[in-house]
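## Example record

The block below lists the input lines for one assembly entry, exactly as stored, with component labels intact.
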Amino acid sequence: MYRLTCVQCGRSYPPDEILYTCRSCGHLLFVEYDLDSLSIRREEWDRRPISVWRYRELLPVTIPPVTLKEGGTPLYPLERIGEEIGLPHLYAKHEGMNPTGSFKDRGMTVGVSMALQLNKSTVACASTGNTSASLAAYAAKAGIPAVVLLPAGKVALGKVAQALMHGANVISIRGNFDKALEMVQELCISHGLYLLNSINPFRLEGQKTIGFEVIDQLGCVPDRIVLPVGNAGNISAVHKGLGELHALGLIERYPMMTGIQAKGSSPVVRAIREGLPEVIPEGEPETVATAIRIGAPVNAEKALTAIRKTGGTAEWVTDDEILAMQRDLARKEGIGVEPASAASVAGVRKLALEGVIDPSERVVCVVTGHLLKDPETVIKQCKPPTEIDADVQSLLSTLRSC
Ligand code: F0G
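Predicted structure tokens for the full assembly:
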């Protein structure tokens, strides 16, 4: 039992209405469950394998879901990096280990299932890359067409390859992500395609399970959860899910929700620092972390609430800091992530060195996408392989000179 409710004016809509924003005031919607009517037992959850669908009572899907076995991603202790920056209880939740290599799969298993549940026959999104890769794969699994709009020349190679190979109709626009999102929204509303950007309240339902899994894996509520922020859907989703656990009496406190952006694309950080009631969009966002190259985050109002209500914060990191942390994660921890994902840990390093994060804190960074998503940025940072003649003498002399 659930309805769609406006975050601003509280107006509710029936769950089968295809709606992305409130008809009265234009603000975002969220899925509101009648929590009293749900029978949720922790022991029952604990008996199920850890995955998005472990938590199915708190998801809106009532049909057999379109699933590629998403979620259940590893939570790694970051021992070396933690020691270096003075945080002995630092962890990374590696969302790059999802079926298409990013956390978007949690949203898409729910979102594409909802498309079928609502009898929609075509799905669409705008994307900085990962959403399109994930949507393409889940649409393929569901057997329905997908249309994806990408900012031309600004999407990492692996992501484009995935969207193409999974058979989506891939369109590059000569404009940035914010423009692509505007266009796809217009297309979906005028032509009845089902929009699966994070403005879709059902998609975020899947993503909230990151927080559920963190608590189950850690065995307690962390003091802080840190996420890279682009369109601000994920940080909002995790906070929303924790609110449900809190209302159900399953947790007693919230972690401090902490958002990290790239310096060249940081409207949420500015709003938090300056105490603004809403974000001021940035017209020309720029960063090496193309996944979060977003100037006008559509979920900003939910994200500002999440950060402020939990006593969290937002911080920016430079592209150099992002890439340095991408290398550190790869070389000191064996964890391969794309640049946007390294931003969360780079942000933690900065906040720890500034004394904002206390050494006693249990901190979980969500690392959102896999290293192989953006091979070009990886190759640019590394020395190319040494090419030698195919004989052992050459091999030995090369190794000696290293
Ligand atoms: N990390 C990665 C790897 C992403 O792909 C994204 C968003 C984010 C972080 C930020 O999450 O938008 O919920 O704040 N990627 C979207 C896309 C925009 O189209 O793939 P957010």
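The first helix runs from residue 42 to 47. The chain has a mean pLDDT of 97.
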